[in-house]
Amino acid sequence: QVQLVESGGGLVQPGGSLRLSCEASGTLFSDNAMGWYRQAPGEQRELVAGITTGGVTNIIASVKGRFTISRVNAGNTVYVQMRMNNLKPEDTAVYYCNAWKPGWKNLEVWGQGTQVTVSS
Description:
The chain is mainly β. It contains 1 helix and 10 strands, in the order E-E-E-H-E-E-E-E-E-E-E. It has one helix at 27-30, and strands spanning 3-7, 10-12, 18-25, 34-39, 46-51, 57-59, 67-74, 77-84, 93-99, 114-118. A hairpin with a 5-residue loop joins strand 5 (46-51) and strand 6 (57-59). The chain is globular.
């Protein structure tokens, strides 16, 4: 059984920080690269940061230097965190975690996401 649970979002002022956490259960996740994605109102969902099983990361340019991603595997469960510093209003979105793989847009199972709002 696969399950995704995201947490850690909230309302923060510009320049603030948040740490998002994801608990992903199932070998679909524990055996694969994982990513954090976000979707702002009226926008398409986009990959923000990905991390392979070996710990190699890929961060999109707009958040590089501000966001970091990490993971810990525990059996068939993987815990993925994303530390977000110096948050900007344009980072406002619902954040999701999921497998990071070609065709990720067609993944059928998504969690509820966690809302991040950056506003003064």
